[in-house]
Amino acid sequence: MEVWIFILSGVLLLQPALTTPPNIILIFADDLGYGDLGCYGHPTSLTPTLDWMASNGLRFKDFYTTAAVCSPSRASLLTGRYQTRSGVYPGVFYPGSRGGLPLGEVTIAEILQSQGYETAMVGKWHLGSGLNGTFLPTRQGFQNFLGVPYSHDQGPCRTLTCFPPDIKCYGTCDVGEAPLPIFLNEEIVQQPVDFTTLIPMYLEFSKSIIHKAVDNQKPFFLYYAAHHTHYPQFASAKYTGTSVRGRYGDALAEFDGSIGELLEAVRDNGALENTLFFFTSDNGPETMRKERGGSAGHLKCGKSTTYEGGLREPAIAYWQGKIKAGVTSELASILDILPTIAALSGAPLPNVTLDGYDLSDLLLLGHKSPRSTIHYYPPSIDANIGIFALRVGKYKAHFYTQGAFHSETTPDPDCRITALLAVHEPPLLFDLDMDPAENYNLLNRGIPEDLAPVLNEILQVREDFQSSMEYAESQTNLGNDPSLKPCCNPECTPKPSCCQCKNGV
Predict the structure, then answer these.
(1) Is position 70 annotated as part of the catalytic site?
(2) Where does the secretion signal sit in this chain (predicted)?
(3) Does the structure show a pLDDT above 70 at 323?
């Protein structure tokens, strides 16, 4: 693929003046591990666009999601609030879920739409659909939506083609569900999805949104929530067979190429100097999939665990002429994206409790991050237990640990499902600057005198956080209703296999 080298003119001002609200392209990968990109150390990943963005933008080394599974991390990203506040826990939504992201939650899209932005979402929603589309993106501030309401493995896939000309998807996915639907706003336009043409369709739609907004002299917000590199992997003809990393590498190459096309579209519309690109991922890799499941690099474990491999993610911010190229070890989180975008766009913050910080001074001026703590929730949140781990500065304490099915197959027994819930008193303590792989417990032989104040501070931060957290009613525990499974021809029989159509976009 082609990668563009943009020559920056001038220097980064000490006090950058944002005379017009910036366009925002928020790119969210799916199950992409900390070690999956070339710029994060993978030796055979073909990711030239993201590598270019990393070398010309700000690459984060200590960036975190709030959950090691899909739905809760996406809720936190869009609201700037822990998933416990919105009720998007425990676990994830399914095709027939009664619940979803509550409409009372204020999303980035709603904030920006109120500021005159053209708002669009492409890809994976996974925050509920509900009765008559109650929870779809179009009800949450997105004027335009093309995508899937949940994960693309939440529907039978064995007979579907994942790679052209006719390479079937590897695995069975969720049997007994309706075929995977593609929505255009609130209408199903394809069921089941054609994986071999899906990303080109997404890109054509995204480019039209960008062009329309620029042509109408409106700022735009595009939330590009990719399916890559979640299992089962897929790709279009352009990327099939291009990577030495096999099918996973082909899917990753298509993801990287799609970002390149978004960059090109913004450049061709003359909007590059006023567009912020922010890329990260929802959670760590499914190591249970072996070579098809991604890599956490040197970090411990992966998806569904509260070890670093589950929640520390790659992240890159690129804005030509505004963000100075570099690498940062400052702490940051997906919680910080909403308040940062609000500050950059001049939008007021919603009148709710936010858990994020404005990182605009970090991005534009290279200042320190206002964030000093990271709280690690497990997928199966229990209000009586609370967080499993806590990072304060460079130190991370594990109060509870547990392996997970998604993190199977690695040699580390701590990652496996056989590693049952364990309570640690005193907690396990790691210096993540020295030991990001969490190999060496600093409290293995008692509490050293010099670490006693560190432990006391961590325990106090934990107590303050736990006592102040308000747990909303669980949306995922509202259960499932088979009649809510999306079907393009709801009167057909037998369901759900009869739900098939292709109306076109």
Answers:
(1) yes
(2) 1-19
(3) yes
- Give the phi and the psi of residue 251 in degrees, each rounded to 5: -65, -40
114/223 same-domain check: yes
Q: Are residues 134 and 228 in the same domain?
A: yes
Type of residue at 378: P
Same domain (yes/no): 430, 322: no
User: Do 146 and 28 lie in a common domain?
Assistant: yes
206 with 87, same domain? yes
Select which of 42, 126, 375, 406 is catalytic.
Answer: 126
- 482 lies in a domain? no
Report the distance separating Cα 471 and Cα 85, nearest Å. 5
* CA pair distance 385, 157, nearest whole angstrom: 37
Give the position of tokens 């929640």.
311
Q: What is the pLDDT of residues 153-170, one digit of tens each?
A: 999 999 999 999 999 999
Angle at 40 between CA 35 and CA 41, to 5 degrees: 80
The model scores a pTM over 0.85 = yes
Element (H, E) at 140: none
**Known active-site residue 126:** yes
- Residue among 353, 232, 354, 240 at smallest CA distance from 294: 232
* β 23-29/220-225 pair status: parallel
Helix axes 337-345, 70-79, angle to 10 degrees: 30
The domain boundary residue, chosen from 344, 370, 396: 370
Active-site residue, from 39, 70, 157, 415: 70
Domain count, the chain: 2
Is residue 183 a contact partner of residue 189, using CB atoms and an 8 Å limit?
yes
First to last CA, the chain: 26
Domain containing residue 35: CATH number: 3.40.720.10
Q: Which pLDDT value is given to residue 18?
A: 62
In which domain, by residue range, is 454 found?
A: 376-474
Under a CB-based contact definition with an 8 Å cutoff, are residues 89 and 356 in contact? no
- CATH assignment at residue 441: 3.30.1120.10
Both 299 and 431 in one domain: the answer is no
Query: What pLDDT does 504 receive?
Result: 57
**Same domain, residue pair 310 and 193:** yes
Using the structure block, give the residue that is written with the tokens 């197959």: 409
- The rounded distance, in Å, linking the Cα atoms of 326 and 256 is 20
497 within some domain:
no
Tokens 């949940």 belong to residue: 150
Residue 375 Cα distances to 68, 126, 141, 272, 427, angstroms: 12, 23, 28, 35, 14
Q: Do 89 and 377 contact (CB within 8 A), yes or no?
A: yes
